[in-house]
Every structure is written in structure tokens, then in C-alpha cells.
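Sample 1 of the test manifest.
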Amino acid sequence: MRWRSEPLWLIGAAALVAAVLVVLNLGALGAVVWRAEGSASLSSADWSALRFTMVQAAVSALVSVALAIPVARALARRRFAGRGALVVLMGAPFILPVLVAVIGLLAVLGRNGIVNEALVWLGLPRFSIYGFHGVILAHVFFNLPLSVRLLLQGWARIPGEHLRLSSALGFGAVARWRHIEGPMLARVVPGALTVVFLICLTSFAVALTLGGGPRATTLELAIYQAFRFDFDLGRAALLAAVQAGVGLAALLALARFTLPEGASTGMDRVAPAPPGGLAKGLDALAIALAAAFLLAPLAMVVIKGLPAVVGLPAVVWWATLRSLVVAGLSVVLLAVFAAALTAASLTRKAPEALGMAALISSPLVIGTGLFVLANPWIDPARLALPVTALVNAAMALPFALRALVPAARRAEADFARLSAALGLSTAAHWRLVLWPRLRRPAGFALGLGAALSLGDLGVIVLFAQTGSETLPMQMHRLMGAYRSGDSAGAAVLLLALSLGAFVAVERLVGGRDADA
Amino acid sequence: MLTLDGVEITLGSFRLAAALSVPQGARVAVMGPSGAGKSTLIGAVAGFVPLSAGAIRWQGARIDALAPALRPLSILFQDNNLLPHLSVFDNVALGVDPNLRLSAAQKAAVGQALEETGLSGLEARKPAQLSGGQVSRAGLARVLLRARPMILLDEPFSALGPALKRQMLDLVARIADETGATVLMITHDPEDALRLCDQTIVVADGQASPPAPTGALLADPPPALKAYLG
């Protein structure tokens, strides 16, 4: 039973946001199909792009989650100085701009990177980061930490009694694995695999910088190439339809697996002492290797880029300004979208599902569609920045809703009756009950939105011409022109802006702990 | 007088019928097995559970179509009676103005209610910084401040120890004396019922029985209550 009628304008606002999202996703695809003249067919290169997309996403998911298991187990059962910081760091790649990571990986594993210098010094042949394994490497860099955090939540939810029971019964490593850790992983791993698979399915910037060529092109990259180089709308439309179909199939698969809940960052309860000896050594090794794999590229970005920041050319600073404007606009749009859908989802299921659908929608498909729609009326280049902000907001929406909707539903379950018993108006209910409970997740969500928008290299490449680049796009240009000093400087700038924007927005919106 | 006139509640396959009246100023315990519908009955009076038939009247006027806040009652739930992000003062002040825009006189009234419930000096604290007993007192301060003709208690003290629970029951009795309120209290503990309530409603087998004297009822319980009490 509902004790408060929803104001009409609220329902209207939610419906409007829903319409924008549907038009953005389906309308854009429709526009591409509509403008595709003649009968296009998929070339053999397109088939291999489809194959590569699926294979790289599957391999990225398997490698990320497989490597995450020993790291998560070591983090779950060991206590050491800096453990908390390391767990927080595992969350950082999520807001790390793709290009910054790519530049870092190139500095370590690229042609003139540390590893290759060492190989040459040892008299061994150089190793090339470009192609299939480069794409996988970059995807693992981003998704290993995510997988570790997802699995850590699984470990954190093993009841303490089970751990104490296992030591009371004298379980060895095998028995513990068979009766406790194995069954837990069987529940958590499928969800983690699906999430990583979905994220890698729409990979664009990684494939653009480390992939390419007939053997390492994703569908997203193929759409971009069909559109930008051949202006073959028929093929772009067909590829977009394939991408949408693959995404939909993957989303339906995801619906069958449940994700671990919440944002617990590790367990701080009394557990039996973990095994020592060899197990301790292996745990230390897993943690050290994971930390080095994640930290070395970031350290290289800072070491190489910091001295170059001061001498950056003016175009980079202009691009920075544009990026900040886009991110600001994107955060405002995200706030409106998320607020409307969160409000509507208090009594319904549909708004949440709608927002989640953006998880599989392809920015390049949306971008192509909007370009086709806008082209007869207005020079698309003039829309580059607003369209980028809009698409960024839509892409960040699933993460925002994942943070906001459960918190809002919990607040409603706990306090709606109290609020009705005291006669709070809808406005007072939002101001006094819901907003204080939602501030922190809202701060996190909008901070994430700001960082994702600042670092995004996606739809902008379809629209922008010289003079309207964002910072990531300008960075990509500098990399393409082999200006490694400037691109490293821009990478440091982008890194600082993304992290800074995340922290600033989170603090500003989220405020202090309201219950303390 | 509170009258439940041919009330029927249907929630899925669950059904509860109640035809009874409670005199003004009475203190009535609501007892019965878990899942029998004690909270459902209180929820219906408070306006959180819809009726499928019948009427609820207070002093002869129907109240079953009114919004919860407009009914002549205050309710304390088992938990979540305080908003964790508001201070004790604001939590109590919600009882006078849900928008928290208080006049000087209203602020003084809130201070008075806090003093009477033994919370002076704790106004600025958040609920997380209070003990269990103090949380209960804050809820009761708001009940006192609202001074509605009925007080519904849905086991708000069930997590407290015996001594603290007795203190709270005595505080309820004092507030009821002061405001002349009728009290309806769900409880599992016959001692609670004996301490505060001269009458008891038994909810069992889909029926809420009319209030009967608590002492006699506990001395010679009907079969359903006997099975529950053991």
C-alpha cells in the first residue's frame, strides 16, 4: 500500500527521461538503418571484427577473473600495513581514463618500455604490445581490480561462523576450498565474468590505440572506421545492429546472474589465523604482483608526464577547458536523469531496468545515429560537445542507479511509514528523509559521472573536427603524431583532472556522514 | 471510544476480522501468537493496512479513509522511529511541524517534552550516539508533544532489557495520564500487559477478540492464548 500519492510532474519527468533514453538508444539505431541506402552486407573483415569482439571479451573476462581469485583470497585473509589503501586503489581504474592507462602500459610494455629495454639488455627479441594480446592486457589492467573487488565481497560475506567452524573441525586447504571457498566462488564468479565480458564488449578506445588492423578490430572500432573513413552508412548500420544484438544477448545472460551487493571494501572481523608457510609466501607474491601490475604504469605516467605539463601547447589547454565544460554539462544531465528515475523506481521496477539497458548500449551506435539525424539540419561538428555530454551522462547512468536505487528503496522501506504517520509533505519527505540518505551515494555517482566524462574517448571522435577536441581526443592526436612528451604531459593533466573531479564532486555533493 | 465495526482485512490468503470497541482512556494490550495479525490490526488503525470491509470510528466519526497523519493517534514502530541523520531535537520537533519551521513557542514545547522524558542536554545528538533507552525516550517525547488521543505501540521496547522496559512502560503510563490518551500496545510479555494494561485484546485464528480484563484473561487463558503462553 502506498501512503503518499506521487505528484504528476514527477511521473512526467521520469517519463520524459525514459523517452530520451529510449530515443537515444533505439532512435539512433533506427536512424542509421533508415539512412543506410541499398543493401549492405558484412564483409569478411566485418565477420572477423565480430569474432574478435566476442573472443577478446571472453578471454579478457576469463583472464581478469582467474587472476583475481588468488589476489582477492590473499587480500581477504591477510592483514598488513597499506591493505586498506590497496583495496581503495583497486577501485581507481574504474575512473581512470583509458588513454592514461594506455600511455602507462606503453611506458612499461611498449616498444621502448622498461620491459623491452630489459629484454634487449638480456639479448632477447623485443615484445610488441600491439594486437590481440595488447588489447587483452589493457582490458585485464582495467578489469582485474574490478574483479578483485567483486570477489572480495564474496569472501566478505562468508559467515564468520563458517570460518570458525572450519578451523574448529581442522579443515585443511583442500577441505576449506571444497566446502567454503569453492561454493562461494561458484555463486560470485559467473556474475563477475558477465560484468567484465559486457564492459569489454563495447571496447573502443583500447582497440583504437592498441588494436586495429584486420586481426584486432572490435565492432565499435569497425563502426567508427566504416563511418569516418568510408562514410558507408549501410555498413555502419549493419555493424551497429550486430553490436546491439550482441549487447542485448549479453544483457539477457546477465539478468540470470546476480551481482554481489553493495560496496563493502573488505572485512574487519575476527577470523581464524590464516595458514602460514608456503601459503603465506604465495599470498604475498599474488599481492605484490597485482600491485606492481597496477602501479607501475601509473607511476610511469607521472614520472614521464609531470615535467612535460608546463610546456604543453595551447591546444591542449583549450581542449582541457572544453573537457571541463562537457563534464560539467554531463554531470548536470546525469543528476537530472538519475533523480527522475530514482524517484520513479520507488514504486516501480521498470525505470531501473531502463537505466541498466544503457550498460550494453554502444556509444558509437548512438553517436552515428545522432550524426545522421543532425546532418540535414545542422553541421554535426557544432553539436560535438553537447552530444558528448549527453552520451556520457547516459553511459554513467547505470552506475548511478546501482548506487542510488537500493539506497532510496532502503530509506523508503525504513522511514516511509514514519513519514506518513507524521504527515510530511512530498517536499518535506524528500528534503528531510530521502535526500540525507541519498547524499552520499549521489556524491559517489556524480563524482563517477564527472570522471568518466572527462576521460571518455568515444562519441567525440565521430563529431569533432579540429578546434573542438576534448582533452582525451587531443591526447589521441598527440599520440598519433608521435609527440610522446606532450601526450605524456597531457596524460598527467587528464589523470589529475579525473581524480580531482571525482574527489571534488563526491565531497561537494556527498558532504560528511549525515548520521555521525 | 475507538470502534472497529465489522472490520475485515484480507492480505493475500491472510484474513483477520475484528468487531470490538475500546473505551476512551483505556490501556489495552494486544497479545497473540506470531503471525496472527497483531501488527496488521494496529497497522489498520494507524492507516497503513487497507480494510476490505467494515469501518473504524473514533468518537463516532469514521477515520478509516483518513491519511495516517490525520488520524487522532501517534504510533511507535518496532524500530526506525527516529531519522538517523536528524538530531534528537529535530526528530522530536517533527511532531509539531513536519517541515521543521518552528516558532519560539514550539521550540520551547519541544524542549519541555525532552525535559519530561529525561533527554535534557542530549538535544544536539544524533540517534547513533544514544543508548537504546534514550532512543525509546526520544520516540516517546514526540508522542507526548503531539498529544493525540490515542497511542499505538507496535513493540517499540522489545529490544530493551527488563528494567529499562519497565521504565519505558511507566513513562508511557505517565504520558497517557498527562494527555488522557487511549493506549493500544502489542506485547509478547504477559508481565508488560499486567504492568500497563488493564484490558487485553487477543488476536488469534483470524479473529481479534474484544478487550477483556488482563488479570482474568491471563489467569484463565482461552485455548489459543494458552498454547502461545505455554
